[in-house]
Write a structure and sequence with these properties.
Chain lengths: 481, 481
């Protein structure tokens, strides 16, 4: 096997998804393994994706009046225990600090799996009257959940990066009104930046965040037919404010508990995005998030070398500051090797430039997503590159949306649900009566679960496959990471 | 005592510095205590300072060709032990994870006190040839050092946020050439954004970072006469590359160890900045870093209220998008109470606007730093505000530079050094022969230490106060946090 083919992806997306996915992440230099199992090293290309997601999301949070903060990594055990369901949900996954230097510490400290308990203990000191509300806080940080299930590279890691938004309101109405704003931001980010479609809906009680009253999520579909939860928003009601004493004096002078919400988007999205878009030749990264958006590859022979390189540097000047561009002028690699390398790494657009192009005052643009090639005038280079990048961004979303539509199926009975899920996978639309017993039955029979329940739907005029009663909704059902 | 005076600072900077400093941070709502001692909660106003420092620093790193990454929080004990001096320096301060969920884990995991050992283990896999170098990586993250000394609010916290830059080069010359670039960036950020002067120099061997060959720092002076280390840059030579096997094939086909550097700026700078600039009325925050740069306070009486507020909203439109501005239209507080509150919080510029101003088509600008007031035409509002903010930024740096110059003293004998330090404090310029014994003697006699040794100096033609030999340099000496 030649060096080039060893460097490339040695399996196919449609044949061995898990192995393909891991190879893409590693060989495209997106991320690497850490010596601690389940923890991820983000290399420059991978971290740039996160920085871009973060910047765009943060901009929208700030426009919405949300302020960034930082709360510490450590949560004393007694605080984590203050909200009963919350600690029950997270205790099995907590990493505990018990020693510092060579001493044992008095009270174990949890590495935050999420910051509700610490934040609310502190924030309760900041709120006195209705005038202090709403208070909408966010932090971008790292959290640790030591899951006993096998971690999956980026998709399910023991440490991950995320935003955790935490807001407090005087009334339930105001708190509820935040839902569409936050989920709207996440929808915009996932669709317009990650080029990732998903199904928005409400989680069932069984799948609701530990301590919350209601959880809403965007659910994605991976190419292996499994679903995976994307960004979410939780309505906490007064659960935490009662546990942590977050009390304010309302306009009539009476003490009230605040209403709270929380929400998050995490680095998991990077894994989902790469799994959905990439192909057998390597990573495909949407232009808006790519570390390198354009690679300029001069095609030279001995006699043209100097002139072509000189001209290529002028092309770079036209692109610099407008696009994240690299000029690949390495002279020990053939153009073919360079093409392979940048395709593997997922750079959205390649600009080829050789002696003939120089004469014609043109370049050749090659798209990473389709492999499509076309010539473009040097004089119009920036516009043409911008157009092509926009087209790639839109096309990736279209392709992913088509795949989601194709991967969304129907079932109306338990055997049908089981058969569809085991033979085809995907997200299955199933009628449901709303009873937890029927949810549990569907789960047991199929190994899948209710991902979420689409909002604002009319009853589907169908029977629940669990009990035969009238269904109240169609739900999104699937096997999930 | 009235509510207003309780809310304000109840001690003086010049009388009880420690208490004053803590009150400023807490009452200006910059930061708060965490339930875990020595950990800091950054509130929106405090975290915005860090975001602004981070954004400006990161921009310059990227322009220099440095790429951001993320390496995990956990370092297995065996890795931390790979570089002998490094582990010796950090082991006493490490927070150890020993349990996850209800299980004991096999190998203790260190919460990173700094990431050399983990990064270099991983990065050694990424480097094969001289073509892979230089590799210049950075991360913005949280680190934990469980110092046994008493933690000091923000200035010395057990968890802090920082950048850790890590670069690898093929030759010592290239590695050394990075020093002035990085320290130049830090100098620009501290001076032009934090308005903080400092003394640049090289640490002595005794004060060098654990595992490094040379440490260079910027040293600040606090108003209590103690020095505190600011951003730093370390030359590691081949110490870590030898311990972690970071080997590359050079252009002659021979194996070589890489040369490495590391560098950092941390949230400690926020504390230094506030301590230096703030006054007895509360925080003073340099305009370039302030969460709120301008507060617009309408001055209304019952009859003018509606007209003034309407006009104030138009003024807001002129300022919005150009400056981070708040319109304080709360109607339950007097203008005087509002002035006190925004002064306490350190907002650089207040714009007052009342019925008479409306008639005159003017506003009154009030500077937080000097209290200086002047009228400005509404038609020129943006320009006038910009001018005033620039002037405040420059004036804070000037004032801090004057204080540093005034706080810098000379001493040529041990008794003199001791007397100056104990009676006046500050940073003392002392001749030194370069011998560790004399450094140790000066430390023992005075309780201070050599902060750093200014670069590019000629021998001072003076005697070392330790041994009486010819001095080779003047050093910056002081008591330090």
């Amino acid at each position: 096997m030649s060096k080039a083919s060893q460097d490339g992806i040695t399996t196919k997306k449609g044949e061995n998804f898990d192995e393909w996915y891991t190879q893409v992440i590693l060989k495209a230099e997106i991320a690497d393994y850490s010596p601690v199992s389940g923890c991820v090293v983000y290399r420059p290309s991978g971290y740039a994706i996160w920085e871009n997601i973060q910047r765009e999301t943060d901009l929208r949070f700030k426009e919405a009046g949300i302020s960034n903060t930082y709360f510490p990594l450590f949560i004393p055990e007694r605080l984590l225990k203050k909200e009963a369901e919350h600690v029950e949900g997270f205790a099995p996954e907590v990493a505990w600090v018990t020693q510092t230097g060579s001493s044992k510490i008095e009270e174990r400290l949890a590495i935050r799996p999420t910051s509700e308990s610490l934040m609310y203990e502190v924030v309760s000191r900041w709120i006195r009257s209705w005038r202090d509300l709403p208070m909408r806080l966010n932090q971008w940080n790292n959290v640790v959940r030591w899951e006993t299930k096998n971690p999956t590279f980026i998709l399910r890691s023991r440490e991950f990066l995320w935003n955790e938004g935490h807001s407090l309101f005087a009334t339930r109405e105001e708190a509820d009104a935040e839902r569409d704003q936050i989920l709207g931001i996440y929808k915009e980010i996932t669709e317009e930046y990650l080029a990732l479609p998903g199904y928005l809906g409400k989680k069932t009680k069984a799948e609701t965040f530990a301590g919350a009253e209601g959880t809403y999520s965007i659910e994605h579909l991976l190419p292996d037919g499994k679903a995976i939860q994307g960004p979410d928003w939780h309505s906490d009601g007064q659960n935490f404010s009662k546990a942590f004493g977050i009390v304010f004096i309302d306009q009539r002078g009476e003490k009230q508990f605040a209403y709270q919400n929380t929400w998050a988007i995490s680095t998991r999205e990077i894994g989902v995005m790469l799994a959905v878009h990439s192909d057998d030749r390597g990573a495909i990264i949407p232009p808006k998030l790519a570390f390198v958006q354009v690679v300029l590859v001069p095609i030279v022979n001995d006699e043209s070398k100097q002139a072509v390189l000189e001209e290529a540097r002028k092309l770079m000047e036209r692109l610099r500051g407008k696009f994240r561009t690299v000029l690949d002028d390495r002279d020990h690699l053939t153009p073919g090797r360079k093409f392979n390398e940048w395709e593997l790494k997922g750079v959205p657009l390649r600009v080829e430039f050789g002696p003939r192009d120089m004469k014609e005052k043109q370049v050749v643009l090659v798209r990473r997503d389709t492999g499509g090639k076309r010539a473009a005038k040097v004089a119009e280079l920036s516009d043409e590159v911008a157009k092509e990048l926009d087209s790639i961004q839109a096309s990736l979303f279209k392709r992913a949306s088509d795949a989601l539509a194709k991967g969304t199926r129907d079932a109306s009975t338990l055997p049908e649900l089981k058969r569809v899920l085991s033979q085809q996978g995907g997200i299955v639309r199933v009628p449901w009566c709303g009873k937890p017993e029927c949810e549990a039955k569907m789960r047991e029979v199929t190994g899948g679960k209710i991902l979420n329940v689409p909002l604002d739907q009319k009853p589907p005029k169908a029977k629940c496959p669990g009990c035969g009663d009238e269904a109240v909704s169609l739900v999104n059902f699937g096997k999930s990471y």
